[in-house]
Every structure is written in structure tokens, then in C-alpha cells.
Amino acid sequence: MDRVNRHPERARHERQDLYAVLDAEHNIGTLSTVVDGRPWVVPMLYGRVGDRIFMHGSTGAGALRHVAAGAPAALCVAHIDGWVYAHTLFDSSANYRSAVVHGELQLLQGEEAAEALTQLSECMMPGRSAEVPTHTRKQLAATQCLALDITDGRWTVKVRNQPPGEPPAADNADPRLWTGVLPIVSRYRQPEPSPYLAEDIPVSPSVTSYIDESGHGPAL
Amino acid sequence: MDRVNRHPERARHERQDLYAVLDAEHNIGTLSTVVDGRPWVVPMLYGRVGDRIFMHGSTGAGALRHVAAGAPAALCVAHIDGWVYAHTLFDSSANYRSAVVHGELQLLQGEEAAEALTQLSECMMPGRSAEVPTHTRKQLAATQCLALDITDGRWTVKVRNQPPGEPPAADNADPRLWTGVLPIVSRYRQPEPSPYLAEDIPVSPSVTSYIDESGHGPAL
């Protein structure tokens, strides 16, 4: 991992910690690179499989081709888990989990690309790939599939998961002021059928089992 | 705004659309810049006030000083609103709202910085600034307060908010397969008091009214 200079107590150092952040929520991150000396950024869906991160895009996406050609890149993922109300604004904070992975993207080809696209889909919609037809050659030809390898020394994880600290002795803190955490969670709503769907078609097993097993069960 | 090349039908062109995405969820984005020709990225809390975006960090954060010194920067914000289950993996997608704002950060000073820090706090914890003491000089001295101006031609917004499309005529699509959207929402849980708090102290009005008015009312 890279070195964390600010709040080193929030750094996490094990690969499992990185995997936990990457796999935790909804598989969206920000992919950054440099184009003409300026930052180029785009939100990207991703999926981690072992020590690789897969992403994809259209073959028509020019800047993505630049990244795919080996430009230095970084993927940043961040989840807010709560607002931390302290006795002062200065001590107030957020609980969060974040990860940054640096590396060079590789453009996958042929069977490796097809398999990676299936695995990427499984990260976001587990079980779905078995319910739909396999990729066609035309679909594969229209898709860039990218891999970012997770490499020692090139990632950081930071986690804050704490109540506010003790009231400061100075700073005019009011000891009778409520302090604590307002937790934020992500939930699913009930699946919404496509308007093109016949009425008697049940929700796919992949969707119902995902809701049940995700820990993000439906908001009532 | 910048030009959106891929899926131009998803682009939004009015400032109100940008503001809606920036203000929508939990005020976390990815700040990117270029250091030594490589991408430098960090998750950042932010708050939009008018056509400015405020961020902050410790004065000890060296890379942030680099950004604050006028380096080209970009803030990327993205929310996932649902998984879109189509008849093929290729046509499957996510509903999302995303924004990228390019510009140069400015380091604010003195009274302007103090006011911006209060406004930034109000974006994340509305009402709280009136419940706590005002910033001390020591706190202000320890904080970098940054502003990113929203400038015409230097931002993009993309939104997908649709069910899956009609089943494709080809691609071996199964017309009896369930298709639709699994919506994802963000919710609060009940506030968790600090362990340092006396038991009889009620939750602050800023917290209770935030929950009630946010549209992210508590998950039961």
C-alpha cells in the first residue's frame, strides 16, 4: 500500500481490508488518469475478482482507449457510513470506508475478455449470467474490457468507524450538547418490472436471492 | 459543460441538473489532480453553495496544498440508483446520476475561509453550526478551506433513469425472462449517542429535523 500521511490510525494494511471496501457496496468508483497534463475522470462500474479489478466501456469511448493503452490510472471508491456530530464543527466528521488503487489498465482480448465481462456482471448482478444468453461476438466487439491489477505498495485503504471523541476541554464545548453518529445505510426497494414484460412473469431468482443475501434487504 | 460523447441522451445541460446531482446524496466525491504526471486522487467531502463547491482538509495534507496552489483539478460525484436487469448482459446497466466538475481550486483565507467552513458544514449537517461554538483561530489555522468554482463549459452531468429497453429481436433473448430495475436507496438509521454523553440529553434538533426533511428517513 501507499503511505497514508493524514490520520494514519485510519489506514488499513491487509489485502482483506482492501477487498472488503471494494466489495462492500454498489461497485461504483471514479477512474482517473492524465490526458494532456490534466486530470481525466469518469465514474465507472467495477468488479473485483481475486487481485484484479475489471471495468468495461464502449469501444467508442476514446479516452477509455487512452487509459487502456497503459496510461497511469487510479480507481477511487468511497462509502459514507454516517455523520459524526461532535461538540465542535472542527471535531465533527464522517464515518467512511475508502480505497484508492493505482496501476496501469490492461485491455483484455478474446476469451479472457468474455470471461471477465461475465465475472464483472456477477459482481454486480450475481446469478444473472446464468439466466441470460452468452455474449455474442458482436457484443464483445463493441465492448472494451479492462483489468487493473492490485499490486503491493500501490493501494491505500482508509476507514473511520467511530463515535465522536471526548468533548474537548477548551473550545467552549457545551457538555449538554447531544453528540453521536447518524448512520447511513443503503437499501433496495422492491424490484420494478420492465414495462415490456408480461404480467405473469415472476422476478428472476438471481434478483430475489440477491436482495435476500446482500444485507441490503428492501426498505419498507 | 464539457461534451458528452458516449450516450449523449444521458447528458444534462442545465446548471440546475448539475446542482441536483451535487446536492442529492451524501456530499462525497473524488478529487483528482496530477502530481508528477500521474493521477492523484482522494475522496473528499464537499458542499455546494451557489456556483461554488467547498472542500476542506488539514493544513498538514501536502498533496492538498498542491491542489490548492492552482493545479488543474476535477471533482467526480456518482450515485447508483438501481441495477437494470435486461435480456442480455450487454443491455444490462445501472441507473445512476453523475457529475464531473473541472477547474482550479482556490485556497480561501481569513473570514472568507471561516464562512465557507460553516457553509460546508451546513451542506452536510444542516442546522448544526448554530448548536456549536464558532470556529476558534486555532481550528481555522489547522484547516485548509478550498473553493472550486463551477464554470460554463467545464462540467458534465450524466443521468440514466430508465427501465431496460425492449427485448432485442436477435441475441437469443428469452421473452419469458424477468427484466426490470432493482432500485437502490439510501436511508438513515436511528442516531447513536456518543458513549461520552449523559443519558438524559435529547438528540439535537439539527439531527432530528435533518432526518425528517432529508427524504432519507430512517430505515426501520
UniProtKB/TrEMBL annotation, chains A, B:
Pfam families: Pyridox_ox_2. InterPro entries: Pyridox_Oxase-rel, Split_barrel_FMN-bd. It comes from the Bacteria. This is Pyridoxamine 5'-phosphate oxidase. It comes from Enemella dayhoffiae.
